[in-house]
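ARCHIVE CARD
Drawer: 12
Card no.: 0347
Subject: one protein chain, sequence and derived structure
Cross-reference: see card 0346
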Amino acid sequence: MRLLHTSDWHLGRAFHRVNMLGAQAAFIGHLVTTVREREVDAVVVSGDVYDRAVPPLAAVELFDDALHRLADLGVPTVMISGNHDSARRLGVGAGLIGRAGIHLRTDSTAAGTPVVLEDAFGDVAFYGLPYLEPALVKDEFGVEKASHEAVLAAAMDRVRADLAARARGRQGIGRTRSVVLAHAFVTGGEPSDSERDITVGGVASVPAGVFDGVDYVALGHLHGSQTLTERVRYSGSPLPYSFSEAEHRKTMWLVDLDADGSVAAERIDCPVPRALARVRGTLEELLADPALARHEEAWVEATLTDAVRPADPMARLAERFPHTLSLVFAPERGPDGPDVSYARRLAGRSDQEIAEDFVAHVRGAGPDEREQGVLRDAFDAVRADDVVREVAR
């Protein structure tokens, strides 16, 4: 069976105020063309279809167009909700849409109920694990600790139990092969700046071993295409959503699942609306350096290292780099210099670390282990409450 694995469309998202809807529509067209020309048997979309729980109408219309075009091809599609989606909204009409071969899996209670497709060698069971917010689903899965690893492990126990009951396919030929769709941060994956933080209890990631026992794991959440093992892969987002993705090669995975469950995978490049470039130096260096000519038509993030902020830097940069979207000031001073910005001092630090530093600053000593736990619980509660509020909108 030939699968096309994609994720993290983030329909409705902009790139530094640039409307990406046209680029997203071009990607959908490319996806449909790939399905047709490469004779794909099933499409899997591993979450974050939309960029937010209540997407703009134009994004909903593009999603509707994608569903119709995939259904017209007669190629089954399995989709799950991600942490940016509203699972309840995305899942509206799932039963009816499923009759057209578009299978939306947004309900955590159905983790062990697969979409079963057939090929010449028997059955392939597709298990859709939507993004599992630990605080919201821990009771459903009967786990004591609200952690990503605990709820995903419990969901995978249901998958393995169902799969064990399908030792042979419905037609009695071969064994039932298995594909799991999941939206999670798996240990070993490389994040970028554009994924929403899903840290719970100080931990965001889960070990890849959670998914042992299945033939292929189609992951979503991280925006870079990655191979964690031959059977566990991220497709990454089809478009860039931050300058931290400047070095990404945006692709989908074309996966051939053989009769014995072995996997062969090929990367299919996605359309590039415009190259990304990160340039650094003084303003005069950036304006004069001939080596930067290759970036003149790219979307540019410029980091200026001038000791004194120059006059009209954005206007002057735009004369050479008309698509400059981001301007960062990073004067070359010591890291503890008096003029270092608050934002630079906090760059790369988690909310927990910032809070612990604040405690240390105001009382002269950092929080002890018990106090660190109180802070973690507080941040987890606020984040879970944000999720509930967003979904309820």
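Annotation on reverse: The chain has a mean pLDDT of 91. The CA atoms of residues 103 and 270 lie 24 Å apart.
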